[in-house]
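Hi F.,

I've been meaning to write this up properly since the lab meeting, where we talked about keeping a consistent format for the predictions we share between groups. The idea is simple: the sequence comes first, exactly as it goes in, then the structure tokens exactly as they come out, then a line or two of notes. No screenshots and no reformatting. I'm using this chain as the first example so we have something concrete to point to.
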Amino acid sequence: MSVLGFNDIVQGPLAQYLQYSQQIGGDVAEHSNLVKGAFQAQLQYIQLATESAQPSQTEVISLLKPTSDKISAIQDFREKHRSSPFFNHLSAISESIPALGWVTVSPAPSPYVKEMNDAGQFYTNRVLKDWKEKDKTHVNWVKAWIQTLADLQAFVKQYHTTGLVWSGKGAPKAGGIPPPPPGCPPPPPVLDFDSAAAAGDAGLDRSALFAEINKGEDITKSLKKVTSDMQTHKNSALRQGPAPFKPPVCKKPVSAVKPVSNDKPPVFTRDGKKWLIEYQKNKTDLVVDGVEMNNVVYLYKCENSTVQVKGKLNSITMDSCKKTSIVFDSLVSCMEFINCQSVQMQVLGKVPTISIDKTDGCQVYLSNDSLDVEIITSKSSEMNILIPKGDDYIEHAVPEQFRTKISASKNLQTEIVENKG
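Output, unedited:
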């Protein structure tokens, strides 16, 4: 199943990525051939793990050499083509291809794949910015690659949750890693219940059962009549026998169930390229300093708190927070609100995109450098955008009500309904 699961990635989103790479052509197409070889090498390594017991560390290094050589070739290609017009494409792959190194990570390889996917996001965003208005093929190329790594993360989480599973027996074959399987085995035959019933006992024939039910009142003719000497309320001798079972009565009083506290210890830590800020309450002096361009900040279930982020980083996500504010300098990608209540943000520099999803009450303070921001909202209310004017701000409400009509050509036409108050 592990081999088939990885094969689904190769034949699914990876195949789409390779197809779009060939359509773009040039350095992107040549680079994608190296990526294809890296995934084929990993497929062979995973198949080897299903057929062999876990080898020694020295043997693992030797068996992983084909994969590591492919990854090095992918990154070297980028370095040798810095003048390429598709340098952002090459960089997006080179920064995230180390995700294939999950086979050496334990006990949590799935988050490692996610981290590598995030590492390439800086360059995939550049590709989208440069090409989304010129050629949609490049947009589809980005989506296919991101989906490839997302599926890889889900695959690792499902089949190799705590690390690569060596489920076979014996040492790896002397011939090295076997070639990949030619294809998926055929599905098992569909069980024919009618045939199974016909091959079973004759007494299990359902047609005979329905014939008995359809007799109606005649079905009771074969029942034996109960006479007076058989009735227990008229014959006391029939009432003698063992007493009916009575469950024992528990005399011990049941103590009241103590309510379970959902409070969890606050978290403020850096995990690789991700800063985690969780379960912070009534904290107004939280500062994230020393961030890098490929870093992300993730806030989860914080209440009555304020976070300041110094420096330029990739993105910030605020998830399930209440009455929490965030102040940051600049973002490469996106500021995202999810399932929040009464939150605020202020950007001092540049932010290209703000996403507000399932949030009630969101105040967005923009800077003069962020007036070209793109704001995406869904399933949210009480959203206000504050635009600077001198030393003050002008407040604008984001529309929440819309009117949709069907046009003469049977298409939907939607317009904003202003609240006159």
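Notes:
The two ends are 60 Å apart (CA to CA).
The domain at 267-416 is CATH 2.160.20.70 (Pectate Lyase C-like).

If this format works for you, I'll send the rest the same way.

G.
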